[in-house]
Specification:
With about 240 residues, this protein is mainly alpha-helical. The chain contains 9 helices and 2 strands, in the order ααααββααααα. A two-stranded antiparallel ribbon has the order 1-2.
Length: about 240
Amino acid sequence: MLIETAAYASRWRDVAPSAKALFAVAGIVASWLAQSPAALAALIAMLMLTALLAARVPLRSYIAIALPPLGFLLLSCLTMLFGPDENGHWHWTTTMLPTIQHTALRSLAMLAALLGLVLTTPLPHLLALLRRLRTPELLLDLMVLCYRMLFVLRQAWDESITAQTARLGYRNWRQAWRSTGLLAGQMAVQVWQRAAALQTAADARVYQGTLRFLPAIYPQAQRQQVIAALAGCVMLAIAVGDRL
């Protein structure tokens, strides 16, 4: 939900999704091609500054959304620092440090490219782009339903928390633990009931297996795609020049 909030508040919300996707794909390809730490660091800086300064994504939201994948990356890098010796005993080793550095920088660059896309593109716009790219309708419908169920889950959670708080369910630690347990037990039932109501509403609107949205119009889409292509060429030039 934080991702969607940031996307709707982004300065690039009305920029053509095709242009943003083109820029993100160019960043991913350039990150894969680049070899030296300097080139990868330049790509990371370019992608992050584009999202933070050009698209005006709030720094706090950017960091909050990036923390989970960064935590996974950190854990992966730490595990690569341990390895077996010739006797089969595991110990701390520094032989993998160059590989860890390259993997971490490449992963950060690709993460920055993807964050630049998802933090500036609301889901309906992204779905329209995927539909133009001939993505299977079943996959798109699953994305929409999961997206909707997140809001259903959040609404059920907030309403339950408000009701328990009004009944002094969190007045002390013991009561708070009891209320949390009751809340966890009731969430599955409430979400199931609301999901059934959502299905009933879809059937009442003659749902036939495909969810449609009104397509957005981007008058400057061609100009934006040209700018994105030029920016992507700059990143690719950095990566290709690094390999020469």
